[in-house]
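User: Round two. Same drill as before: sequence, then structure, for each protein.

Assistant: Same drill it is. First protein:
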Amino acid sequence: METKDIDHLFRHHSGKMVSVLTRIFGLQHLDIIEDAVQDTFIKASLTWRKQQPDYPEAWLTKAAKNRVLDIFRTLKSQKNNLPNISQGTDAIAINELFLDSEIEDAQLRMIFTACHPKLDPRDRISFALKTVSGFSIKEIASALLTKEETIKKRLVRARKVIKKAKLKFNIPQGKDLSERLESVLEVLYLIFNEGFHSNNKTQLIRTDLCTEAMRLCQLLLKRKQTQLPECYALFALMCFHSARLETKMSLDNAVLDLKQQDRSLWHFPLIQLGNSMMYKAVETDEFSCYHYEAAIAAEHLKAKSFEATDWNKILKWYNALYLLQPMPSHLLTMAVICMQTEDYKMANTYFNQIQATDLEQRAYLFYAAKADYYAQNNNFPEAIIQIDLALNKVNNTLEKAYLEKKKESWLMK
Protein backbone atom coordinates (compact mmCIF):
# COMPACT_ATOMS: atom_id res chain seq x y z
CA MET A 1 0.00 0.00 0.00
CA GLU A 2 1.33 3.44 -0.95
CA THR A 3 2.16 6.10 1.65
CA LYS A 4 -0.53 8.43 0.29
CA ASP A 5 -3.14 5.68 0.87
CA ILE A 6 -1.96 5.26 4.48
CA ASP A 7 -2.19 9.05 4.93
CA HIS A 8 -5.72 9.01 3.50
CA LEU A 9 -6.76 6.26 5.91
CA PHE A 10 -5.17 8.08 8.82
CA ARG A 11 -7.07 11.26 8.04
CA HIS A 12 -10.42 9.54 7.68
CA HIS A 13 -10.20 6.90 10.38
CA SER A 14 -7.87 8.12 13.12
CA GLY A 15 -10.50 10.53 14.47
CA LYS A 16 -12.98 7.65 14.66
CA MET A 17 -10.49 5.47 16.54
CA VAL A 18 -9.39 8.21 18.94
CA SER A 19 -13.05 8.95 19.74
CA VAL A 20 -14.19 5.37 20.31
CA LEU A 21 -11.06 4.44 22.30
CA THR A 22 -11.57 7.55 24.44
CA ARG A 23 -15.09 6.33 25.14
CA ILE A 24 -13.64 3.01 26.32
CA PHE A 25 -10.59 4.22 28.24
CA GLY A 26 -11.57 7.76 29.27
CA LEU A 27 -10.46 11.32 28.47
CA GLN A 28 -7.72 11.13 31.10
CA HIS A 29 -5.84 8.74 28.79
CA LEU A 30 -6.16 10.83 25.62
CA ASP A 31 -2.37 11.24 25.21
CA ILE A 32 -1.84 7.48 25.41
CA ILE A 33 -4.71 6.83 23.00
CA GLU A 34 -3.41 9.29 20.39
CA ASP A 35 0.08 7.79 20.66
CA ALA A 36 -1.42 4.32 20.25
CA VAL A 37 -3.31 5.30 17.11
CA GLN A 38 -0.16 6.94 15.71
CA ASP A 39 1.86 3.78 16.46
CA THR A 40 -0.81 1.70 14.75
CA PHE A 41 -0.48 3.64 11.52
CA ILE A 42 3.31 3.38 11.59
CA LYS A 43 2.91 -0.38 12.02
CA ALA A 44 0.35 -0.47 9.19
CA SER A 45 2.63 1.43 6.81
CA LEU A 46 5.32 -1.23 7.38
CA THR A 47 3.09 -4.33 7.46
CA TRP A 48 0.94 -3.42 4.47
CA ARG A 49 3.91 -3.04 2.15
CA LYS A 50 3.78 -6.80 1.75
CA GLN A 51 0.05 -7.42 1.90
CA GLN A 52 -2.95 -5.21 2.55
CA PRO A 53 -5.66 -6.68 4.82
CA ASP A 54 -9.14 -7.29 3.39
CA TYR A 55 -10.72 -4.82 5.83
CA PRO A 56 -8.12 -2.07 6.49
CA GLU A 57 -10.28 0.01 8.86
CA ALA A 58 -11.22 -3.02 10.99
CA TRP A 59 -7.54 -4.01 11.11
CA LEU A 60 -6.55 -0.52 12.25
CA THR A 61 -9.26 -0.31 14.90
CA LYS A 62 -8.40 -3.69 16.39
CA ALA A 63 -4.68 -2.95 16.30
CA ALA A 64 -5.19 0.44 17.99
CA LYS A 65 -7.28 -1.12 20.77
CA ASN A 66 -4.66 -3.81 21.35
CA ARG A 67 -1.89 -1.20 21.33
CA VAL A 68 -3.59 0.80 24.09
CA LEU A 69 -3.91 -2.35 26.19
CA ASP A 70 -0.23 -3.11 25.58
CA ILE A 71 0.78 0.36 26.75
CA PHE A 72 -1.34 0.10 29.89
CA ARG A 73 0.15 -3.30 30.66
CA THR A 74 3.67 -2.01 30.09
CA LEU A 75 3.00 0.78 32.56
CA LYS A 76 1.67 -1.87 34.99
CA SER A 77 -1.30 0.39 35.50
CA GLN A 78 -4.19 -1.85 34.58
CA LYS A 79 -5.42 -2.03 38.15
CA ASN A 80 -5.82 1.74 38.54
CA ASN A 81 -6.21 2.93 35.00
CA LEU A 82 -7.66 0.14 32.90
CA PRO A 83 -11.46 0.20 32.78
CA ASN A 84 -13.55 -2.91 33.25
CA ILE A 85 -13.66 -3.77 29.58
CA SER A 86 -15.41 -7.07 30.20
CA GLN A 87 -18.58 -5.06 30.86
CA GLY A 88 -17.76 -2.13 28.56
CA THR A 89 -18.68 1.54 28.82
CA ASP A 90 -22.27 2.37 29.70
CA ALA A 91 -22.97 -1.38 29.85
CA ILE A 92 -22.39 -1.74 26.08
CA ALA A 93 -20.11 -4.58 25.03
CA ILE A 94 -16.75 -3.41 23.70
CA ASN A 95 -17.31 -4.94 20.28
CA GLU A 96 -20.62 -3.10 19.95
CA LEU A 97 -18.79 0.20 20.52
CA PHE A 98 -17.21 -0.33 17.11
CA LEU A 99 -20.53 -0.43 15.28
CA ASP A 100 -20.99 2.52 12.90
CA SER A 101 -23.72 4.12 15.00
CA GLU A 102 -21.61 3.88 18.18
CA ILE A 103 -18.52 5.27 16.44
CA GLU A 104 -20.62 8.24 15.32
CA ASP A 105 -21.86 8.66 18.89
CA ALA A 106 -18.27 8.65 20.17
CA GLN A 107 -17.27 11.26 17.57
CA LEU A 108 -20.16 13.51 18.60
CA ARG A 109 -18.99 13.21 22.20
CA MET A 110 -15.51 14.27 21.08
CA ILE A 111 -16.87 17.27 19.14
CA PHE A 112 -18.76 18.47 22.22
CA THR A 113 -15.67 17.88 24.37
CA ALA A 114 -13.55 19.94 21.97
CA CYS A 115 -16.08 22.78 22.27
CA HIS A 116 -16.41 22.74 26.06
CA PRO A 117 -16.69 26.29 27.50
CA LYS A 118 -13.78 25.58 29.87
CA LEU A 119 -11.48 25.33 26.86
CA ASP A 120 -10.01 28.56 25.49
CA PRO A 121 -11.94 29.49 22.29
CA ARG A 122 -8.60 29.69 20.42
CA ASP A 123 -7.81 26.11 21.41
CA ARG A 124 -11.14 24.55 20.40
CA ILE A 125 -10.71 24.49 16.63
CA SER A 126 -7.13 23.13 16.89
CA PHE A 127 -8.25 20.43 19.32
CA ALA A 128 -11.25 19.49 17.16
CA LEU A 129 -9.16 19.22 13.99
CA LYS A 130 -6.60 17.05 15.80
CA THR A 131 -8.80 14.67 17.77
CA VAL A 132 -11.98 14.49 15.68
CA SER A 133 -10.65 14.98 12.16
CA GLY A 134 -7.17 13.46 12.37
CA PHE A 135 -5.29 16.51 11.07
CA SER A 136 -1.57 16.65 11.82
CA ILE A 137 -0.07 19.59 13.73
CA LYS A 138 1.56 20.77 10.50
CA GLU A 139 -1.80 20.71 8.64
CA ILE A 140 -3.59 22.57 11.46
CA ALA A 141 -0.85 25.22 11.54
CA SER A 142 -1.15 25.63 7.78
CA ALA A 143 -4.96 25.83 7.87
CA LEU A 144 -5.02 28.37 10.70
CA LEU A 145 -2.00 30.40 9.52
CA THR A 146 -0.27 29.74 12.82
CA LYS A 147 3.15 28.41 13.79
CA GLU A 148 3.36 24.68 14.56
CA GLU A 149 4.79 25.51 17.98
CA THR A 150 1.68 27.58 18.76
CA ILE A 151 -0.61 24.69 17.75
CA LYS A 152 1.38 22.31 19.98
CA LYS A 153 0.94 24.69 22.92
CA ARG A 154 -2.81 24.98 22.25
CA LEU A 155 -3.22 21.20 22.20
CA VAL A 156 -1.19 20.77 25.41
CA ARG A 157 -3.24 23.53 27.09
CA ALA A 158 -6.54 21.93 26.00
CA ARG A 159 -5.51 18.51 27.34
CA LYS A 160 -4.40 20.04 30.66
CA VAL A 161 -7.79 21.74 31.07
CA ILE A 162 -9.59 18.48 30.25
CA LYS A 163 -7.64 16.60 32.92
CA LYS A 164 -7.75 19.33 35.55
CA ALA A 165 -11.47 19.98 35.14
CA LYS A 166 -12.18 16.23 34.82
CA LEU A 167 -14.42 16.87 31.84
CA LYS A 168 -16.93 14.15 31.01
CA PHE A 169 -16.92 12.49 27.61
CA ASN A 170 -20.60 12.96 26.87
CA ILE A 171 -23.17 14.90 24.88
CA PRO A 172 -24.65 17.63 27.12
CA GLN A 173 -28.37 17.76 27.84
CA GLY A 174 -30.98 20.53 28.19
CA LYS A 175 -29.69 24.09 28.56
CA ASP A 176 -26.06 22.92 28.46
CA LEU A 177 -26.68 21.37 25.03
CA SER A 178 -27.91 24.60 23.42
CA GLU A 179 -25.03 26.61 24.91
CA ARG A 180 -22.39 24.09 23.81
CA LEU A 181 -23.98 23.62 20.41
CA GLU A 182 -23.37 27.29 19.63
CA SER A 183 -19.63 26.70 20.06
CA VAL A 184 -19.76 23.45 18.04
CA LEU A 185 -21.45 25.18 15.09
CA GLU A 186 -18.97 28.06 15.24
CA VAL A 187 -16.03 25.62 15.05
CA LEU A 188 -17.59 23.72 12.12
CA TYR A 189 -18.29 27.05 10.36
CA LEU A 190 -14.67 28.14 10.81
CA ILE A 191 -13.34 24.80 9.51
CA PHE A 192 -15.57 25.04 6.43
CA ASN A 193 -14.72 28.70 5.83
CA GLU A 194 -11.00 28.00 5.93
CA GLY A 195 -11.57 25.36 3.26
CA PHE A 196 -13.81 27.54 1.10
CA HIS A 197 -11.51 30.58 1.18
CA SER A 198 -8.21 29.43 2.60
CA ASN A 199 -5.55 31.60 4.20
CA ASN A 200 -2.99 29.08 2.95
CA LYS A 201 -0.28 30.75 0.87
CA THR A 202 -0.54 28.49 -2.19
CA GLN A 203 -4.06 27.01 -1.97
CA LEU A 204 -7.22 29.07 -2.22
CA ILE A 205 -9.53 26.08 -1.71
CA ARG A 206 -9.03 23.26 0.81
CA THR A 207 -11.65 20.70 -0.22
CA ASP A 208 -10.58 18.37 2.61
CA LEU A 209 -11.58 21.00 5.20
CA CYS A 210 -14.94 21.65 3.52
CA THR A 211 -15.68 17.92 3.33
CA GLU A 212 -14.70 17.36 6.96
CA ALA A 213 -16.89 20.23 8.21
CA MET A 214 -19.85 18.82 6.26
CA ARG A 215 -19.25 15.31 7.60
CA LEU A 216 -19.22 16.56 11.20
CA CYS A 217 -22.33 18.68 10.60
CA GLN A 218 -24.10 15.59 9.22
CA LEU A 219 -23.27 13.76 12.45
CA LEU A 220 -25.23 16.43 14.32
CA LEU A 221 -28.19 16.04 11.97
CA LYS A 222 -28.31 12.26 12.46
CA ARG A 223 -29.10 12.67 16.17
CA LYS A 224 -32.57 13.78 17.27
CA GLN A 225 -31.21 16.00 20.07
CA THR A 226 -29.24 18.09 17.61
CA GLN A 227 -31.66 18.16 14.67
CA LEU A 228 -32.18 21.86 15.29
CA PRO A 229 -32.95 24.73 12.84
CA GLU A 230 -29.50 26.31 13.15
CA CYS A 231 -27.83 22.96 12.38
CA TYR A 232 -29.93 22.52 9.24
CA ALA A 233 -29.20 26.14 8.23
CA LEU A 234 -25.44 25.67 8.63
CA PHE A 235 -25.50 22.47 6.58
CA ALA A 236 -27.59 24.23 3.89
CA LEU A 237 -25.00 27.01 3.77
CA MET A 238 -22.22 24.45 3.34
CA CYS A 239 -24.16 22.74 0.52
CA PHE A 240 -24.76 26.05 -1.30
CA HIS A 241 -21.11 27.09 -1.09
CA SER A 242 -19.82 23.62 -2.01
CA ALA A 243 -21.98 23.63 -5.15
CA ARG A 244 -19.70 26.40 -6.49
CA LEU A 245 -16.33 24.99 -5.38
CA GLU A 246 -15.27 23.59 -8.75
CA THR A 247 -15.94 26.88 -10.53
CA LYS A 248 -13.89 29.13 -8.24
CA MET A 249 -10.71 28.37 -10.19
CA SER A 250 -10.04 28.25 -13.93
CA LEU A 251 -8.29 25.34 -15.65
CA ASP A 252 -5.02 27.30 -15.50
CA ASN A 253 -5.47 27.81 -11.72
CA ALA A 254 -6.58 31.44 -11.83
CA VAL A 255 -9.14 32.85 -9.37
CA LEU A 256 -12.63 33.30 -10.83
CA ASP A 257 -15.01 35.64 -9.01
CA LEU A 258 -18.81 35.23 -9.05
CA LYS A 259 -19.11 37.27 -12.24
CA GLN A 260 -16.67 35.03 -14.12
CA GLN A 261 -17.87 31.62 -12.88
CA ASP A 262 -19.61 29.24 -15.30
CA ARG A 263 -22.99 28.82 -13.60
CA SER A 264 -23.86 25.79 -15.75
CA LEU A 265 -21.12 23.92 -13.85
CA TRP A 266 -22.57 24.61 -10.40
CA HIS A 267 -23.42 21.28 -8.77
CA PHE A 268 -27.21 21.01 -8.88
CA PRO A 269 -27.63 17.98 -6.51
CA LEU A 270 -25.87 19.96 -3.76
CA ILE A 271 -28.12 22.94 -4.41
CA GLN A 272 -31.16 20.66 -4.11
CA LEU A 273 -29.83 19.17 -0.88
CA GLY A 274 -29.23 22.67 0.47
CA ASN A 275 -32.79 23.68 -0.41
CA SER A 276 -34.23 20.64 1.38
CA MET A 277 -32.13 21.49 4.46
CA MET A 278 -33.42 25.08 4.37
CA TYR A 279 -37.04 23.87 4.39
CA LYS A 280 -36.25 22.10 7.67
CA ALA A 281 -34.32 25.11 8.96
CA VAL A 282 -37.27 27.50 8.63
CA GLU A 283 -39.87 25.37 10.38
CA THR A 284 -39.59 27.84 13.29
CA ASP A 285 -39.60 31.66 13.28
CA GLU A 286 -36.22 31.99 15.04
CA PHE A 287 -33.38 32.63 12.59
CA SER A 288 -29.66 32.32 13.32
CA CYS A 289 -26.74 33.93 11.49
CA TYR A 290 -26.48 30.68 9.49
CA HIS A 291 -30.05 31.15 8.25
CA TYR A 292 -29.22 34.59 6.83
CA GLU A 293 -25.90 33.48 5.33
CA ALA A 294 -27.62 30.52 3.68
CA ALA A 295 -30.36 32.82 2.34
CA ILE A 296 -27.66 35.08 0.83
CA ALA A 297 -25.85 32.13 -0.76
CA ALA A 298 -29.19 30.84 -2.14
CA GLU A 299 -29.88 34.23 -3.80
CA HIS A 300 -26.60 34.01 -5.69
CA LEU A 301 -27.46 30.48 -6.82
CA LYS A 302 -30.95 31.51 -7.99
CA ALA A 303 -29.65 34.20 -10.34
CA LYS A 304 -29.35 33.04 -13.96
CA SER A 305 -26.47 35.45 -14.44
CA PHE A 306 -24.38 37.85 -12.33
CA GLU A 307 -26.33 40.78 -13.78
CA ALA A 308 -29.65 39.15 -12.79
CA THR A 309 -28.65 38.98 -9.11
CA ASP A 310 -31.23 40.52 -6.75
CA TRP A 311 -28.77 42.76 -4.91
CA ASN A 312 -31.51 44.56 -2.95
CA LYS A 313 -32.70 41.28 -1.47
CA ILE A 314 -29.13 40.28 -0.62
CA LEU A 315 -28.58 43.66 1.08
CA LYS A 316 -31.79 43.10 3.07
CA TRP A 317 -30.45 39.75 4.34
CA TYR A 318 -27.08 41.32 5.17
CA ASN A 319 -28.78 44.06 7.19
CA ALA A 320 -30.62 41.38 9.18
CA LEU A 321 -27.36 39.46 9.60
CA TYR A 322 -25.50 42.57 10.78
CA LEU A 323 -28.15 43.27 13.44
CA LEU A 324 -27.60 39.74 14.76
CA GLN A 325 -23.84 39.68 14.25
CA PRO A 326 -22.31 43.20 13.95
CA MET A 327 -19.01 42.36 12.24
CA PRO A 328 -16.76 44.59 10.08
CA SER A 329 -16.64 41.91 7.37
CA HIS A 330 -20.42 42.23 6.93
CA LEU A 331 -20.14 46.02 6.57
CA LEU A 332 -17.49 45.54 3.90
CA THR A 333 -19.71 43.15 1.96
CA MET A 334 -22.62 45.60 2.25
CA ALA A 335 -20.39 48.29 0.73
CA VAL A 336 -19.55 45.95 -2.17
CA ILE A 337 -23.26 45.20 -2.71
CA CYS A 338 -24.05 48.94 -2.88
CA MET A 339 -21.35 49.24 -5.54
CA GLN A 340 -23.24 46.64 -7.62
CA THR A 341 -26.35 48.84 -7.52
CA GLU A 342 -24.21 51.95 -8.14
CA ASP A 343 -25.26 53.46 -4.82
CA TYR A 344 -21.76 54.83 -4.22
CA LYS A 345 -22.86 57.25 -1.50
CA MET A 346 -24.16 54.37 0.65
CA ALA A 347 -21.12 52.27 -0.20
CA ASN A 348 -18.89 55.04 1.11
CA THR A 349 -20.98 55.25 4.29
CA TYR A 350 -20.23 51.57 4.96
CA PHE A 351 -16.53 51.97 4.09
CA ASN A 352 -16.24 54.83 6.59
CA GLN A 353 -17.41 52.54 9.39
CA ILE A 354 -14.52 50.10 8.83
CA GLN A 355 -10.79 50.18 9.51
CA ALA A 356 -8.69 47.75 7.45
CA THR A 357 -7.10 46.49 10.68
CA ASP A 358 -10.58 45.39 11.86
CA LEU A 359 -10.37 42.59 9.29
CA GLU A 360 -7.02 41.30 10.62
CA GLN A 361 -5.62 38.71 8.15
CA ARG A 362 -8.28 39.66 5.60
CA ALA A 363 -7.31 43.38 5.60
CA TYR A 364 -6.38 43.09 1.91
CA LEU A 365 -10.10 42.62 1.11
CA PHE A 366 -10.81 46.15 2.41
CA TYR A 367 -8.16 47.70 0.14
CA ALA A 368 -9.26 45.57 -2.83
CA ALA A 369 -12.89 46.68 -2.39
CA LYS A 370 -11.83 50.33 -2.08
CA ALA A 371 -9.77 49.91 -5.26
CA ASP A 372 -12.90 48.67 -7.08
CA TYR A 373 -14.85 51.61 -5.66
CA TYR A 374 -12.41 54.14 -7.12
CA ALA A 375 -12.13 52.24 -10.41
CA GLN A 376 -15.92 52.26 -10.84
CA ASN A 377 -15.82 56.02 -10.28
CA ASN A 378 -13.06 56.35 -12.92
CA ASN A 379 -10.48 57.46 -10.36
CA PHE A 380 -7.81 55.02 -11.54
CA PRO A 381 -4.78 56.66 -9.83
CA GLU A 382 -6.47 56.21 -6.41
CA ALA A 383 -7.64 52.70 -7.41
CA ILE A 384 -4.00 51.73 -8.09
CA ILE A 385 -2.87 53.15 -4.72
CA GLN A 386 -5.52 51.02 -2.97
CA ILE A 387 -4.77 47.86 -4.93
CA ASP A 388 -1.07 48.23 -4.12
CA LEU A 389 -2.04 48.29 -0.43
CA ALA A 390 -4.07 45.11 -1.03
CA LEU A 391 -1.15 43.45 -2.83
CA ASN A 392 1.10 44.30 0.09
CA LYS A 393 -1.27 42.55 2.51
CA VAL A 394 -2.54 39.53 0.57
CA ASN A 395 -1.01 36.18 1.56
CA ASN A 396 -2.37 33.79 -1.07
CA THR A 397 -0.34 33.75 -4.31
CA LEU A 398 -3.43 33.00 -6.45
CA GLU A 399 -5.34 35.96 -5.06
CA LYS A 400 -2.25 38.11 -5.53
CA ALA A 401 -2.18 37.15 -9.22
CA TYR A 402 -5.90 38.01 -9.49
CA LEU A 403 -5.29 41.48 -8.03
CA GLU A 404 -2.21 42.08 -10.19
CA LYS A 405 -4.28 41.29 -13.30
CA LYS A 406 -6.81 43.95 -12.20
CA LYS A 407 -4.03 46.47 -11.62
CA GLU A 408 -2.62 45.85 -15.11
CA SER A 409 -6.02 46.55 -16.71
CA TRP A 410 -6.32 49.83 -14.76
CA LEU A 411 -2.81 50.96 -15.73
CA MET A 412 -3.94 50.82 -19.33
CA LYS A 413 -6.87 53.21 -18.70
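Second protein:
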Amino acid sequence: MQPLFINLTSQKIVIAGGGRIAFRKAKNLDGERAHITFVAPVFSDEIIPFAHQRGYELIQREAQPEDFKDAFLSILATNNRDTNQHLAKSLDPCQLVCVVDEAGEGNVVFPAAVRRGPLQIAVTSNGASPKLTRKLKKQLDEQFDESWTGYSEFLAKCREHIKKLSIQSAEKNGLLAELLDDRYRLSEDERESKWAYLNSLK
Protein backbone atom coordinates (compact mmCIF):
# COMPACT_ATOMS: atom_id res chain seq x y z
CA MET A 1 0.00 0.00 0.00
CA GLN A 2 1.12 3.54 -0.74
CA PRO A 3 1.13 5.93 2.24
CA LEU A 4 -0.62 9.25 1.59
CA PHE A 5 -1.67 12.25 3.61
CA ILE A 6 -5.12 13.43 2.50
CA ASN A 7 -6.85 16.76 3.12
CA LEU A 8 -10.33 15.93 4.46
CA THR A 9 -11.54 19.49 4.97
CA SER A 10 -15.24 19.78 4.05
CA GLN A 11 -15.31 16.17 2.83
CA LYS A 12 -18.14 13.79 3.71
CA ILE A 13 -17.18 10.87 5.93
CA VAL A 14 -19.68 8.13 6.76
CA ILE A 15 -19.02 5.73 9.62
CA ALA A 16 -21.08 2.54 9.90
CA GLY A 17 -21.12 1.66 13.57
CA GLY A 18 -21.94 3.23 16.88
CA GLY A 19 -19.54 1.58 19.28
CA ARG A 20 -16.03 1.94 20.66
CA ILE A 21 -14.16 1.45 17.39
CA ALA A 22 -16.42 3.85 15.47
CA PHE A 23 -15.88 6.42 18.19
CA ARG A 24 -12.10 5.94 18.10
CA LYS A 25 -11.98 6.43 14.32
CA ALA A 26 -14.09 9.58 14.59
CA LYS A 27 -11.81 10.93 17.32
CA ASN A 28 -8.84 10.38 15.00
CA LEU A 29 -10.59 12.44 12.33
CA ASP A 30 -11.87 15.13 14.65
CA GLY A 31 -10.15 18.40 13.86
CA GLU A 32 -9.94 17.66 10.13
CA ARG A 33 -13.02 19.91 9.58
CA ALA A 34 -14.83 17.11 7.76
CA HIS A 35 -18.57 16.37 7.75
CA ILE A 36 -18.99 13.13 9.69
CA THR A 37 -22.12 10.97 9.76
CA PHE A 38 -22.61 7.93 12.00
CA VAL A 39 -25.09 5.24 10.94
CA ALA A 40 -26.00 2.54 13.47
CA PRO A 41 -29.07 1.11 15.23
CA VAL A 42 -27.51 1.91 18.62
CA PHE A 43 -24.97 4.56 19.65
CA SER A 44 -22.64 4.36 22.63
CA ASP A 45 -22.73 6.84 25.47
CA GLU A 46 -19.47 8.25 24.11
CA ILE A 47 -20.66 8.92 20.57
CA ILE A 48 -23.93 10.73 21.35
CA PRO A 49 -22.51 13.71 23.28
CA PHE A 50 -19.43 13.78 21.04
CA ALA A 51 -21.56 14.03 17.88
CA HIS A 52 -23.85 16.66 19.37
CA GLN A 53 -20.92 18.76 20.53
CA ARG A 54 -19.15 18.58 17.17
CA GLY A 55 -22.23 18.91 14.99
CA TYR A 56 -21.87 15.43 13.48
CA GLU A 57 -24.95 13.64 12.17
CA LEU A 58 -26.46 10.53 13.78
CA ILE A 59 -28.68 8.21 11.73
CA GLN A 60 -30.19 5.55 13.98
CA ARG A 61 -30.76 2.43 11.87
CA GLU A 62 -28.81 -0.30 10.13
CA ALA A 63 -26.34 1.10 7.60
CA GLN A 64 -27.28 0.64 3.93
CA PRO A 65 -25.15 0.92 0.79
CA GLU A 66 -27.03 4.09 -0.21
CA ASP A 67 -25.69 5.84 2.90
CA PHE A 68 -22.21 5.86 1.38
CA LYS A 69 -23.13 7.02 -2.13
CA ASP A 70 -21.58 10.48 -1.82
CA ALA A 71 -19.00 9.68 0.85
CA PHE A 72 -15.42 10.68 0.22
CA LEU A 73 -14.31 8.26 2.95
CA SER A 74 -16.33 5.32 4.26
CA ILE A 75 -15.45 3.57 7.52
CA LEU A 76 -17.09 0.20 8.16
CA ALA A 77 -16.89 -0.32 11.90
CA THR A 78 -19.96 -2.32 12.87
CA ASN A 79 -19.55 -5.21 15.30
CA ASN A 80 -20.84 -7.62 12.66
CA ARG A 81 -18.30 -9.21 10.30
CA ASP A 82 -20.94 -10.11 7.69
CA THR A 83 -22.34 -6.58 7.67
CA ASN A 84 -18.94 -5.00 7.17
CA GLN A 85 -18.16 -7.44 4.37
CA HIS A 86 -21.50 -6.89 2.64
CA LEU A 87 -21.15 -3.11 2.77
CA ALA A 88 -17.55 -3.26 1.52
CA LYS A 89 -18.59 -5.28 -1.52
CA SER A 90 -21.43 -2.89 -2.31
CA LEU A 91 -19.33 0.28 -2.42
CA ASP A 92 -17.81 1.86 -5.51
CA PRO A 93 -14.20 0.65 -5.95
CA CYS A 94 -13.19 4.27 -6.57
CA GLN A 95 -14.24 5.28 -3.05
CA LEU A 96 -11.92 5.39 -0.08
CA VAL A 97 -12.99 2.57 2.26
CA CYS A 98 -11.64 1.44 5.61
CA VAL A 99 -12.88 -1.93 6.87
CA VAL A 100 -11.79 -2.04 10.49
CA ASP A 101 -11.93 -5.80 11.05
CA GLU A 102 -10.52 -6.91 7.68
CA ALA A 103 -8.15 -4.37 6.15
CA GLY A 104 -7.82 -6.32 2.90
CA GLU A 105 -11.47 -5.68 2.04
CA GLY A 106 -10.88 -1.93 1.90
CA ASN A 107 -8.24 0.34 0.43
CA VAL A 108 -7.51 2.57 3.44
CA VAL A 109 -5.66 1.72 6.64
CA PHE A 110 -5.44 4.16 9.55
CA PRO A 111 -1.82 4.40 10.68
CA ALA A 112 -0.67 5.10 14.19
CA ALA A 113 0.30 8.76 14.02
CA VAL A 114 2.40 11.16 16.06
CA ARG A 115 1.54 14.84 15.54
CA ARG A 116 3.71 17.73 16.62
CA GLY A 117 2.29 20.89 15.09
CA PRO A 118 2.68 20.65 11.30
CA LEU A 119 4.94 17.61 11.71
CA GLN A 120 3.21 14.25 11.28
CA ILE A 121 4.85 10.84 11.50
CA ALA A 122 2.74 7.79 10.71
CA VAL A 123 3.51 4.09 10.97
CA THR A 124 1.58 0.94 10.12
CA SER A 125 2.28 -2.76 9.71
CA ASN A 126 -0.70 -3.05 7.32
CA GLY A 127 -2.32 -5.41 9.79
CA ALA A 128 0.65 -7.75 10.06
CA SER A 129 1.27 -6.86 13.71
CA PRO A 130 -0.82 -4.20 15.47
CA LYS A 131 1.34 -4.75 18.56
CA LEU A 132 4.44 -3.76 16.59
CA THR A 133 2.66 -0.65 15.33
CA ARG A 134 1.73 0.37 18.88
CA LYS A 135 5.30 -0.29 20.05
CA LEU A 136 6.79 1.87 17.31
CA LYS A 137 4.28 4.65 17.96
CA LYS A 138 5.28 4.68 21.63
CA GLN A 139 8.94 4.95 20.64
CA LEU A 140 8.18 7.81 18.24
CA ASP A 141 6.14 9.59 20.92
CA GLU A 142 9.17 9.52 23.18
CA GLN A 143 11.68 10.45 20.49
CA PHE A 144 9.65 13.35 19.12
CA ASP A 145 8.65 15.11 22.31
CA GLU A 146 6.66 18.34 22.61
CA SER A 147 9.72 20.45 21.75
CA TRP A 148 9.04 19.49 18.14
CA THR A 149 5.66 21.26 18.16
CA GLY A 150 7.00 24.78 18.55
CA TYR A 151 9.99 23.95 16.37
CA SER A 152 7.93 22.67 13.43
CA GLU A 153 5.63 25.71 13.66
CA PHE A 154 8.75 27.91 13.66
CA LEU A 155 10.08 26.14 10.55
CA ALA A 156 6.78 26.64 8.72
CA LYS A 157 6.71 30.36 9.57
CA CYS A 158 10.33 30.85 8.53
CA ARG A 159 9.91 28.99 5.26
CA GLU A 160 6.98 31.17 4.21
CA HIS A 161 8.98 34.30 5.03
CA ILE A 162 12.16 33.12 3.27
CA LYS A 163 10.23 32.20 0.12
CA LYS A 164 9.19 35.86 -0.23
CA LEU A 165 12.68 37.32 0.19
CA SER A 166 14.31 38.99 -2.81
CA ILE A 167 17.48 36.92 -2.66
CA GLN A 168 19.02 34.15 -4.75
CA SER A 169 17.70 30.58 -4.48
CA ALA A 170 21.06 29.40 -3.15
CA GLU A 171 20.83 31.90 -0.29
CA LYS A 172 17.29 30.81 0.51
CA ASN A 173 18.38 27.18 0.60
CA GLY A 174 21.25 28.09 2.89
CA LEU A 175 18.92 29.84 5.32
CA LEU A 176 16.50 26.92 5.29
CA ALA A 177 19.28 24.40 5.88
CA GLU A 178 20.64 26.40 8.83
CA LEU A 179 17.24 26.22 10.52
CA LEU A 180 17.70 22.45 10.88
CA ASP A 181 20.30 23.04 13.57
CA ASP A 182 19.00 21.43 16.75
CA ARG A 183 19.54 24.57 18.80
CA TYR A 184 16.41 26.08 17.25
CA ARG A 185 14.37 23.14 18.47
CA LEU A 186 15.78 23.25 21.96
CA SER A 187 15.76 26.99 22.58
CA GLU A 188 12.87 29.42 22.16
CA ASP A 189 15.33 32.29 22.60
CA GLU A 190 17.33 31.01 19.61
CA ARG A 191 14.13 30.85 17.55
CA GLU A 192 13.13 34.38 18.49
CA SER A 193 16.61 35.71 17.67
CA LYS A 194 16.62 33.96 14.30
CA TRP A 195 13.13 35.21 13.48
CA ALA A 196 14.18 38.78 14.24
CA TYR A 197 17.17 38.35 11.93
CA LEU A 198 15.07 36.97 9.11
CA ASN A 199 12.64 39.85 9.44
CA SER A 200 15.54 42.26 8.97
CA LEU A 201 16.22 40.77 5.52
CA LYS A 202 14.55 42.19 2.43
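The radius of gyration is 21 Å.

User: Perfect.
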